[in-house]
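quick one before i forget lol
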Amino acid sequence: MNTLTYNFLAHRIYCVSGGKMHIPLSIVVASLGSLGSGLAYSADNLKYRLVDQTMFSNVSAQLSPRMGISVYQVLISRQSNAISFFAFQMACDILITAGMVYYLYQCRGLIKRTNSVINILAFYSVNCGAINMICVAASLACVCPFDILGQT
C-alpha cells in the first residue's frame, strides 16, 4: 500500500515539476526498495515462522542444526530488513516533502492570492511530511539494534 501511495505522490510531483524526472524517479526507486525490504522481511517471517515475540522462545527448536544458522543470525537478518524498510520509507517522505516544497515555490508568481495559496500548500506538505517522518523515525528507533556490538 505504501508503494502505491509513494508512486502516486511521485506522479503528483512529476506533474507539478513540469515533467522533470529527477525527484519522482528517486521516489519510485526508494519506494521499490521499501517494497523489496518489506517482502524480504515477510519472507523471513514465513520461512522461520517468527511471527510474534512469544514465538522467539521456540525459535531454536524450529531451526535445525542442519540449516547452519543460529537464532541470532535469523533475528539480525529480520532486523536488517526492517531497518532498510523504514529507512527507504523515510527517504521517500523526505524526497516527497522536499520535492513538493521546491516545485510549489517555483510556481510562485506576481499574484498575491496565488502566492498565499502556494504558501499554505507548502506548509501543509511540510507538516504532513514531518508527521510521516516522525512516525517512521519512531518505528525505526524501535527496530534499531540497541547493542551495536552484537553482545547479548
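fyi Residues 71-106 form the longest helix (36 residues).
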